Model the fold of this input.
Amino acid sequence: MVEKVTLSVIKADVGGYVGHSSIHPVLLEEAQRHLEAAKGDGIIVDFHVTRVGDDLELIMTHRKGVDDPEVHHLAWRTFEECIRVAKSLKLYGAGQDLLSDAFSGNVKGMGPGVAEMEFVERESEPVLIFMADKTSAGAWNMPLYKMFADPFNTAGLVISPKMHEGFSFEVHDVKEHKRIVFHCPEEIYDLLLFIGAPGRYIIKAVYHKGTGEIGAVSSTQRLALIAGRYVGKDDPVCIVRCQGEFPAVGEALEPFSMPHIVEGWMRGSHFGPLMPVSVPQSNPTRFDGPPRVVALGFQLADGRLIGPRDMFDDPSYDEARRLCNVVAEHLRRHGPFEPQRLPLEAMEYTTMPQVMERFRNRFEDLGD
Ligand code: 13P
Ligand code: 13P
Ligand code: MG
Ligand code: MG
Done:
């Protein structure tokens, strides 16, 4: 039997530097040390430590399948040790994403974001890892739809015999904790009915309709729903396999040429455009934003991560970044008004209801 490889991306905010704008280099070094040791011990095959904004990202390959307790424990311990260092430097919000003190076998539901997939490596296996800061799970809905279902984005859907049949989308209802699968292109209108509301219906994974092979997986953890209060944004991740029966690398990157509006930004309470940037430029600073997305590309070789290439480090995204700044400026001028601020329902998970509570007794009946 051919040995499968598992690609796991597990992330957490272990402490911001300065404020929520970036991460201190010593935290990356600390994580690097832990994963190096785990590689030596044979727990993982290979790894790459990186960051987007203030989020620490552990990209790992191994042979243990998804939801493996040993790999999840490794990520958890790494976060704990980084938090210890972050606390010694009094970095901001150190440990905000670890919602429990006790690890119970899987980091899911405990704060960190997770995207994992297991597959047999193809003759050549290009993968892209998308990582975002200052936004929530669900931010991948529009890009994933464009990559795997929109012929105006992905030429291969029309002209490649390997892709023409289409893809199946697994969508999670994160409020009711349910899942549904839509087969596209025949069900694209049905799919859009749900994923157009990315705060609740989130694309978890995409599969090739003919082969059943997994093409993409995203992190769907919503911190506010887990904690029941505001503890920072989810800052999600997403893995996409490219070429052959999947979108070409350029087709997978193309959706980000249109900076779509996502929820997050300042205090996780505002709408803003998602700016594609290189890793060094992923320091959301203006009004703690605008939200950022980075993409690292790797070729897998027997589980080894050959790379990364910093995919948005390319002048062809300059116009997207410029448009992003124009849109950000326009939204910013709305200040405390919607639609710069999120609608009331979403603000439930912020500190705003506590302030509103003070005025409860001052409301009088209109009496008519
Ligand atoms: P494949 O080689 O994966 O078929 O992709 C063709 C291509 O040229 C993409 O830009
Ligand atoms: P993070 O979720 O990236 O920590 O940002 C939180 C925040 O409140 C930014 O203003
Ligand atoms: Mg933070
Ligand atoms: Mg963050």
Q: What stands out?
A: The radius of gyration is 20 Å. The CA atoms of residues 40 and 46 lie 10 Å apart. The mean pLDDT is 96. The chain has two domains: 1-120, 122-350.
